[in-house]
Amino acid sequence: MASLISCPHCGLRPKEEFSIKGDASLTRPAPNAGPEAWYDYVYLRDNPKGRHKEYWHHSSGCRRWLVVERDTVTHAAYEVSDAALAKLGGQA
């Protein structure tokens, strides 16, 4: 049985329609931040075990950016929200 992701715009869809794009908890440095801050932002990543929020792109569906909370061990998806709403202070 295929794993399903609940897209807030398209409903339940197979996970193969999505692309995982990375950690949704990172904060982009200010444009005038020093080289060390930019190096850390671009190259250094944690490898968390357990629940973690990631940016996913519904590339074969509505083409919206989503924030998906999933377990990195079991790959179970829990919460899914629109990334634009999360950025505006909605759920993320």
From TrEMBL:
Record keywords: Plasmid
Gene3D superfamilies: Folate-binding superfamily (3.30.2270.10)
Recorded GO MF terms: sarcosine oxidase activity
Listed InterPro entries: SoxD, SoxD_sf
GO BP: any one term: tetrahydrofolate metabolic process
Pfam families tied to this protein: SoxD
Protein name: Sarcosine oxidase subunit delta family protein
UniProt source species: Rhizobium jaguaris
